[in-house]
Amino acid sequence: MDRPTTQGARTMRNTRLKASCFALMVAISGGAHAAQPDDAYPTRPIRMIIGGAAGGSSDVFARAIGDHMASTLGQPVIVEYKPGAGTNIGTEYVVRAKPDGYTILINGLPIVANPHLFPNLGFNPATDLVPISGVAKMTNVITVNASVPVKSLPELVAEARKSPDRFVYGSPGEGTSSHIAGEMLSARTGARFTHTPYRGNAQAMTDLLGGTLQMGFVNTPVAAPFLKEGRLRALAVTSKTRSPLLPDVPTVAEALNLPDFDFNGWFGLFAPRGTPPAIIARLEQAAGKALADPKVDKIFVDAGASAMEPGAASFAKFLTEERNKIDPLLDKRSK
Fold first, then answer.
1. CA-CA distance, 252 to 261, in Å (whole number)?
2. Do the domain assignments include residue 31?
3. How far is Cα 73 from Cα 200, in angstroms, rounded to an integer?
4. pLDDT digits over 120-129, tens only?
């Protein structure tokens, strides 16, 4: 066989060198493409899942912050409802979702309470979800139907001690702020109240106004018009400070001389565990801009709420404080 000429050998070496360079460029390009999703995020709509039905407080806050986040992120934020099982259906849907930033959750107290209330939950909110930011915090007002002959919170507690389970209250479900507020008042006073969970807030309010329920722990903006009409009577708000919507109504701390009594409903944003930190940071930034907008703040205030401190770190700290407060209460209840 003839040996290749010197020129032929040089040509073959050049061809191999070009092939090697091309392969290296493809590898580099592939690596850059692999990093691109985090850098370019988001490139399509983001779904914000609510574990309840349309029309509740979470709906108001989700739409207010979602619309603003969409303008920052450059992609629509679509609110979707997956109600049922005390928000567990919606929460688990997000837990099982691909951790790519395109499916996030807005939820509140059930994140902390439900592991105690549902022993076979199948997931752990504390470890299977990543906090993005707190969103809104709101107080409840302790009310009685106008036909109930109780004029103050001390009187209600005294009557409930004398006749345990005489006073029945409803809530949108186990683990909601209305439910846990009743549990906390009972634990702190020794008065026993009967909780009836509903599939949503509308029927619970209908039954409270109709007298089927004697009392309720109701979000302040929901209760306010019925208090004005005289169909309900306000006894106290559950927060540490009085509500701007009900400035003449005392706090539980004032009414019962319990200085450390402070209980609020709240909502925050979560992503599935494993979501890249760069994507969490992008969502956190967008949420922070929304919470700083006076227009969003007005929506919250009109709904009887205030914006929470933004950021993943502050929200994680808040969740730890909530668990430290709620865990002993519900552990004791289940024994």
1. 7
2. no
3. 32
4. 899 999 999 9
CATH code, domain with 245: 3.40.190.10
CATH of the domain at 76: 3.40.190.150
Lowest mean pLDDT: which of 159-173, 225-239, 266-280?
Answer: 159-173
Closest of 144, 155, 156, 148 to residue 232, by C-alpha: 144
Q: In what order do the strands lie in the sheet with 215-219?
A: 194-197, 168-171, 215-219, 140-145, 232-237
Total residues belonging to the chain: 335
Read off the pLDDT band of 19 (50, 70, 90): very low
**For the chain, what is the domain count?**
2
Q: Are residues 180 and 103 in the same domain?
A: no
In whole angstroms, give the CA distance from residue 171 to residue 51: 15
3-state class (DSSP) for residue 266 = strand
Residue among 86, 80, 84, 126 nearest 105 (CA):
80
In the structure, what pLDDT confidence band is assigned to residue 53 with cuts at 50, 70 and 90? Answer: confident
Query: Distance between CA 126 and CA 110 in Å, rounded?
Result: 11
* Element housing 271 (H / E): strand 265-272
Domain with 323, as residue range(s), is: 46-138+266-334
Q: Specify whether 134 is located in the same domain as 169.
A: no
User: Is 79 part of any domain?
Assistant: yes
> How far out from the chain centre does Cα 286 lie?
17
162 lies in the same domain as 186 = yes
Residue 4 lies in a domain: no
